[in-house]
């Protein structure tokens, strides 16, 4: 199952400068929850960019709508810059206008974790149906599950890293985690300290994006072998509270269980990696237990 | 096949008779009666009084259902009752009645999850096949989607239910609970104009309502202040803020949150249909807002009216009969109730 793309009935007019006849073509890729996501280019025709536009919501009172759009766009821009500086893997910000509601981000290749998992379990169902190949299929699945555990680890490490710099995502789902395939030719800069990395990061966005653009499409098998990139920070906040971090994990856990029931057993690996790689992780995990209890034992009446 | 359904998880006692003529044709409603326990203004319904109300009315309503439909007990295939979630005492009162009737008429007794009852009835009435479901009532706030034989909860209230938030605000204002506190808030909100700033708390597909309630309660204290000089005024116009403005602001804010979390779930699962069930689902402003959102996504909203949105016996009869037809066996031996019963705990045998 893919996200809704073609079914957008209401034609949205983007704000200037994207209305100019000379601006590069905009390709509507996804109608997200609150936004429309276009693939386009910025500055040079070879620099791909994700243009995220938050159109006014007709259902919301206009005053409330303006307040929320502005707050979320600002939150997203601020948090992304902060994450980039502190070494969390997120797309860089190329530009934004919170009055008209757009933000231009570095284009991330690859697919969402949600799509990756759907792909794997679709294949699995398909294979299960073919009884003749059952044995081979099963072995194949075990192999895939091993790889998936690796993916779960990466998710746990990424979320731990995010929390360690004092940011809560606010909307952690598998739709908001992307898996960017690793490029063979890619050069990294090992040994950067945080400050150096920060400066380099800002200057690097364009160059990196250029390199990404030149990279070839990955083979499907390689795809589980990539970097987890966190996206969609509209509901993010900067916090030091363990409670907020625990709610972040709780939201992810439930999104995972409800969206990928077949993969639910793999989720523990996210928490394992989170606890092992993030110093204060154990405290947050204990808090998570409390948040879970509250959720399950919550009285159904007020 | 015909089923009798008994519902009494909160202050509504509902008895219904439904027929499933064949697997392919739509269900037929033979009777759908309800009697509501209404508490005085400023007060909520207490378990003890509510249970007494249900005990006093249950036999009368069952008899009336039979009369209305001209059926005899021998026409009925099974008795369905609400196992939970809900308030303990009222649930038990109705379960005892259901058990008694089942023994008296020698019928299988089928336990039903209240939330699943709402969802199945909503689907049957509206014809929505596989929608994202927003279930909003006095006790529940859930965003649900179906997958692999379960109704999975994607989002929910992190603290109090949205209906509870509205009901408690009605108590703060000491307005009538007849026919329902939420209904009276809706009428007041129609005359409100000013949008006051209230906390807006959404976390992914979850939402929180207790902060808003505290904030609007505090504003109400100032709007209702005895001395006029202390009353809250609009900063720009200098006019007095009204109770209507408060109701309007509360609704606009909490409904925007509900529509937002529903939209997030729709984007996440890739669905364009949305079904609203539960008592708060009667609210026309909520339906309108949800409709606007669904339209922009190229889809549509499905909602039912008061007969099916508000707790009723027919939905219990319907869900019970679906379970019975799919092979769920008589549960007399463990016909217990449970105050907490998660929607996703039920195996939905009757769907692929
Ligand atoms: N930088 C990017 N590069 C490539 N694809 C992206 C990028 N950002 C987002 N996407 C794709 O677009 C989808 C929607 O984006 P995003 O999650 O940011 O918006 P949204 O869910 O509508 O946001 P919000 O919840 O803040 O309203 C993502 O799930 C992903 O598939
Ligand atoms: Mg998103």
TrEMBL record, chain A:
Keywords: Activator, ATP-binding, Chromosome, Cytoplasm, Hydrolase, Kinase, Nucleotide-binding, Nucleus, Phosphoprotein, Serine/threonine-protein kinase, Telomere, Transcription, Transcription regulation, Transferase, tRNA processing
Positions of the Protein kinase domain: 23-302
One cellular component (GO) term of this entry: EKC/KEOPS complex
Gene Ontology molecular function terms on file: ATP binding; hydrolase activity; protein serine/threonine kinase activity
Biological process annotations from GO: tRNA processing; tRNA threonylcarbamoyladenosine metabolic process
EC number(s) on file: 2.7.11.1
Protein's name in the database: EKC/KEOPS complex subunit BUD32
Lineage: Eukaryota, Fungi, Dikarya, Ascomycota, Pezizomycotina
Automatic annotation (TrEMBL), chain B:
Any one cellular-component term (Gene Ontology): EKC/KEOPS complex
Domain Gcp-like: 32-317
This enzyme's EC code(s): 2.3.1.234
Record's cofactor remark: Binds 1 divalent metal cation per subunit.
Binding site for a divalent metal cation: 114, 118, 135, 311
PROSITE patterns the UniProt entry points to: GLYCOPROTEASE
Keywords, ordered alphabetically: Acyltransferase, Cytoplasm, Metal-binding, Nucleus, Transferase, tRNA processing
NCBIfam families: arch_KAE1 (TIGR03722), gcp_kae1 (TIGR00329)
Protein name per Swiss-Prot or TrEMBL: N(6)-L-threonylcarbamoyladenine synthase
Protein's organism: Eremomyces bilateralis CBS 781.70
């Amino acid at each position: 199952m893919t996200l809704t793309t073609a079914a957008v009935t209401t034609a949205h007019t983007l704000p200037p400068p994207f209305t100019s006849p000379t601006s590069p073509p905009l390709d509507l890729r996804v109608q997200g929850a609150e936004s429309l996501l276009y693939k386009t280019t910025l500055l040079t025709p070879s620099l791909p960019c994700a243009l995220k536009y938050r159109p006014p919501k007709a259902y919301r009172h206009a005053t409330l709508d303006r307040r929320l759009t502005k707050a979320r766009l600002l939150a997203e821009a601020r948090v992304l810059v902060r994450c980039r500086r502190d070494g969390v893997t997120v797309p860089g910000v190329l530009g934004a206008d919170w009055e008209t509601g757009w933000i231009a981000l570095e284009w991330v290749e690859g697919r969402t974790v949600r799509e990756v998992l759907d792909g794997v379990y679709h294949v699995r169902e398909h294979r299960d149906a073919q009884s003749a190949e059952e044995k081979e299929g099963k072995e194949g699945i075990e192999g895939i599950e091993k790889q998936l555990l690796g993916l779960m680890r990466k998710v746990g490490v990424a979320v731990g890293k995010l929390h360690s710099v004092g940011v809560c995502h606010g909307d952690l789902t598998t739709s908001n985690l992307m898996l960017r395939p690793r490029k063979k030719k890619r050069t990294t800069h090992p040994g950067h300290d945080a400050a150096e990395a920060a400066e380099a990061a800002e200057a690097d966005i364009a160059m990196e994006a250029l390199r990404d653009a030149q990279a070839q499409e990955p083979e499907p098998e390689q795809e589980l072998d990539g970097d987890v990139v966190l996206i969609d920070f509209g509901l993010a906040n900067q916090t030091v509270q363990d409670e907020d971090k625990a709610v972040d994990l709780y939201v992810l856990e439930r999104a995972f269980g409800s969206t990928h029931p077949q993969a639910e057993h793999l989720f523990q690996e996210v928490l394992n990696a989170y606890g092992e790689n993030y110093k204060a992780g154990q405290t947050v995990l204990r808090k998570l237990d409390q948040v879970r209890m509250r959720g399950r034992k919550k009285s159904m009446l007020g | 096949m015909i089923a009798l359904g008994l519902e009494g998880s909160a202050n509504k006692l509902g008895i219904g008779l439904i027929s499933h003529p064949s697997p392919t044709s739509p269900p037929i409603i033979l009777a759908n009666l309800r009697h509501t326990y209404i508490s005085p203004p400023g007060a909520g319904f207490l378990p003890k009084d509510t249970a007494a109300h249900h005990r006093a009315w249950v036999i009368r309503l069952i008899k009336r259902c039979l009369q209305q439909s001209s059926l005899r007990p021998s026409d009925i295939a099974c008795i369905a009752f609400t196992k939970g979630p809900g308030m303990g005492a009222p649930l038990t009162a109705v379960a005892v009645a259901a058990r008694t009737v089942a023994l008296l008429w020698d019928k299988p007794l089928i336990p039903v999850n209240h939330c699943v009852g709402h969802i199945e009835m909503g689907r049957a009435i509206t014809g929505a096949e596989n929608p994202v479901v927003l279930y909003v009532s006095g006790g529940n706030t859930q965003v649900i989607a179906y997958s692999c034989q379960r109704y999975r909860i994607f989002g929910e209230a992190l603290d109090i239910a949205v209906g509870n938030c509205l009901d408690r605000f009605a108590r703060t204002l000491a307005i009538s609970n007849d026919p329902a506190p939420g209904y009276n808030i809706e009428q007041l909100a129609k005359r409100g104009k000013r949008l006051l700033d209230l906390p807006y708390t959404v976390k992914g597909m979850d939402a929180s309502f207790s902060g808003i309630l505290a904030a609007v309660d505090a504003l109400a204290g100032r709007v209702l202040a005895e001395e006029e000089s202390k009353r809250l005024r609009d900063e720009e116009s200098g006019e007095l803020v009204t109770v209507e403005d408060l109701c309007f602001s509360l609704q606009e804010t909490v409904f925007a949150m509900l529509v937002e979390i529903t939209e997030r779930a729709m984007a996440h699962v890739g669905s364009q249909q949305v079904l609203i069930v539960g008592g708060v689902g009667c609210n026309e402003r909520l339906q309108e807002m949800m409709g606007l959102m669904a339209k922009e996504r190229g889809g549509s909203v499905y909602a039912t009216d008061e007969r099916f949105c508000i707790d009723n016996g027919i939905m219990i009869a319907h869900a019970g009969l679906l379970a019975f037809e799919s092979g769920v066996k008589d549960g007399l031996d463990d016909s217990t109730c449970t105050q907490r019963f998660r929607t996703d705990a039920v195996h939905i045998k009757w769907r692929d």
